[in-house]
TrEMBL record:
Single GO term (MF): aminopeptidase activity
Protein name: Aminopeptidase P family protein
PANTHER family: AMINOPEPTIDASE, XAA-PRO AMINOPEPTIDASE P-RELATED
Peptidase M24 domain location: 16-255
Superkingdom classification of source: Bacteria
InterPro entries referenced in this protein's UniProt entry, alphabetically: Creatinase/aminopeptidase-like, Pept_M24, Peptidase_M24B
Species the sequence originates in: Streptomyces actuosus
């Protein structure tokens, strides 16, 4: 997208920002209701119900919730382990809420980290994430290959004394493209993912393969290309001794030659950004 095109589609970007804010409002509302004894499955259901009450009828993926050492994906080996379980929340335990609603054709994919009471380790991890948000934006604006940016994120984590936990995701992705989803009266799901959104991602995979890019931002060779214009849901995920923390939000990439217009975070008024400002 050029700068001119960016201005033309500002209304569309506002649609993506609206659904991203809606998802984070849901995360904050559900986090406020969590108490000892609540299970991951119950927390995931609370997210679904909150969003459905506000008009969400489709999903990129259904809500997830991870408690305790599952926030760091400890011993995760197969994709089924990502789905909510009967793990119960305890005082002081960290949690992550993750959801990807589709609203009025726009997609968001967000991650919200918190704890049931004080948790100094997760608080530190959340603070460490601020440097990753800045690093990713700077290097995308430099048009560094995605694979190299991924490696720089890894090196920053090592300097911080943290472990890379997004490497546990399928294909080790730190981000993936999101796009508009055509609204349907009935949108079935496949393993918790909306089929309409999956069709869009699959189309990007095929289209990108022909042109030499991938909609999946990974540490592998297929991500060895500059950032592709579009919307990217970015989710650096840190771990330390059984505790994990992450954020996930949309990064807008354009083909503008103006560095500030070439890439920018869709919204700076998000819980983790406000938390960093409060800590300072």
């Amino acid at each position: 997208m050029t700068t001119a095109v960016t201005r033309e589609v500002s209304a569309e970007l506002r649609g993506f920002r609206r659904v991203q804010r809606l998802a984070y409002e849901c995360a904050e509302a559900v986090a406020a209701r969590l108490e000892p004894g609540v299970t991951e499955r119950e927390a995931a259901r609370m997210q679904r119900e909150w969003l459905r009450e506000r008009g969400v009828a489709d999903w990129f993926h259904m809500p997830f919730a991870w408690f305790g050492d599952r926030t760091a994906f400890v011993n995760f080996r197969v994709p089924l382990q990502f789905f909510p379980t009967d793990r119960r929340l305890e005082p002081g335990m960290p949690f992550i809420l993750d959801m990807a609603p589709v609203f009025e054709g726009c997609t968001a994919d967000i991650g919200y980290s918190g704890a049931l009471g004080p948790n100094p380790v997760q608080h530190r991890l959340t603070a460490d994430l601020e440097a990753h948000r800045a690093l990713i934006l700077d290097e995308v604006r430099e048009r560094r290959p995605l694979r190299e940016i991924y490696e720089d994120v890894d090196r920053l984590m090592v300097r911080q004394g943290c472990a890379n936990r997004h490497r546990a995701y399928p294909f080790g992705v730190i981000a993936h493209k999101v796009d508009r989803v055509r609204p349907r009266r009935f949108s079935p799901r496949l393993f918790g993912f909306g089929t309409q959104a999956l069709k869009g991602l699959a189309s990007d995979v095929l289209h990108g393969h022909r042109e030499g890019w991938s909609p999946l931002w990974s540490p592998y060779r297929f991500s060895d290309h500059p950032p592709q214009p579009g919307l990217w849901a970015v989710e650096p995920h840190l771990g330390f001794r059984g505790t994990g923390a992450k954020f996930e939000e949309i990064l807008v990439v354009t083909d503008s030659r103006d560095p500030e217009e070439s890439a920018f975070w869709l919204d700076d008024d998000l819980p983790h950004v406000r938390r960093w400002a409060e800590d300072k």
